[in-house]
Amino acid sequence: MRFENTYLPAGGYWSSPFSKWQGSLSTLHPVKFAADVTSKGLAARGVDPTELDSLVLGWTIPGKRIFYGAPWMAGLIGAPDITGAMISQACATSAACLAHAGGQVEAGGTEATAVVTFDKCSNGAHILYPNPKGPGGKGDAEDWVWDNFSFDPWAKGSMIQTAENVAAEAGISREEQDALAQVRYEQYVKGVESGFQSRYMITPYEINPSGRKVIGSLEGDEGVFPTTAEGLAKLRPMMPEGTISFGSQTHPADGSAGMIVGTKDRMKAWSGDDEPVQLLSYGVARVEKGYMAKAVVPAAQKALATAGVDVKDCVIKTHNPFADNDIYMARELGIEAESFNNNGSSLIFGHPQGPTGARLIAEGIEEARMNGGGHVLFAGCAAGDTAAAVVLKV
């Protein structure tokens, strides 16, 4: 999918810090939490929510009253006259939300849309589905987060099994994965030490669920594990005879991220002295059963080809739930794995699912802005052996 008229304001994106599973954000209502993050993000960028004409809401884990998600969110952020679509596409949710918002702009339906993404892996829904034919009428239960991380009903395996399948087929060793995990940690630490995350992240993030009393504050991401080569080498593989340890995979997290999408004229008004960022393309792909990490490559290739951009000319950010995702992608695209994901990636700061891509897109844009402009590629895998990618011009 190619875009001609879709833009983001320079600086028109934001993210909360990401919090570890069952950590500081675990007890917040996901919609109310995301509304608070969005309100703070809009206010910091001087955007009056009444100037928005649409909303796109992205999430993957249901919370109470999510049935009313988009109109409820619009009301909470001070834009009660608008609404929009709710999108859930596993780890590709952010990219899908951006593409949907862009499609609305291209069709002439909207000029200024807020894309709001959020998820809490913590305290995920425990669902009981009625089953009158069950023994004694017993229902069918599902732990939304844990059960779906652990089993794909089509491929018949867990997400980590897909990564092990790719590692085995491509000959990616435990040592290679550990080495790249160490690099990714060092890239993240460098970003923290340089203050990079403050370019887009809302910090300190005051936790104020009642609207009256602040019960805590996050100065940055919570749950990042100090990583050393020696420590990685001592970790046991997660699967028998496997190559992936706790240190070379991401961790479930909680967070929210968002952005503004619209026409060039409207986005320029919120860009200050800078030029707005142009969305160029969106690509999706699916590969054979049980090989999720592979899908990033064809998705990226589609987005790059549609945009007419070479991968070597891009700032690259990936959603990399496993280190072998990036090793495989680097090999297939002819680039060095160490050359991308500067300043951080989801392998290190965690994966709330819905907002992960939006945060990474913000990071890619900000790195390109620091470089004086250029192209940004975001690509990441998603459940069901799929992936999504977008290319932007800064």
* Level-1 CATH class name of the largest domain: Alpha Beta
What is the typical, i.e. mean, pLDDT? Answer: 97
Give the count of helical stretches: 12
Report the sheet with the most strands, covering strand number, pairing sense and barrel closure: 6 strands, mixed
Distance between the termini: 19 Å
What name goes with the CATH superfamily of the largest domain? Thiolase/Chalcone synthase
Run of helices and strands: EEEHEHEHEEEHHHEEHEHEHEHHHEE
Say what the CATH topology of the largest domain is.
Answer: Peroxisomal Thiolase, Chain A, domain 1
Subunit organisation of the chains: single chain
What characteristic shape results from the CA principal axes? globular
Report helical residue fraction: 25-40%
Count all strands and give the number: 15
What portion of residues belong to β-strands? 15-25%
**Which CATH architecture of the largest domain is right?**
3-Layer(aba) Sandwich
What is the total domain count? 2
Please describe what this structure looks like.
It is built from twelve helices and 15 strands. A hairpin with an 8-residue loop joins strand 9 (205-207) and strand 10. The model has no long low-confidence stretch (mean pLDDT 97). The radius of gyration is 20 Å and the shape is globular. It folds into two domains: 7-122 and 200-220 and 249-268, Thiolase/Chalcone synthase (Peroxisomal Thiolase, Chain A, domain 1, 3-Layer(aba) Sandwich), CATH 3.40.47; 159-197 and 279-393, 3-Layer(aba) Sandwich (Peroxisomal Thiolase, Chain A, domain 1). It is an alpha+beta fold and 394 residues long. The strands form four sheets. Strands 2, 3, 4, 5, 6 and 11 form a six-stranded mixed beta sheet that branches. Helices cover 33% and strands 20% of the residues. The protein has helices at 30-44, 69-76, 93-106, 144-150, 159-170, 174-194, 229-234, 264-268, 296-307, 323-333, 346-349, 356-370, and strands at residues 7-8, 13-15, 19-20, 54-58, 86-87, 112-120, 126-129, 140-143, 205-207, 216-218, 253-262, 277-286, 314-319, 375-382, 386-393.
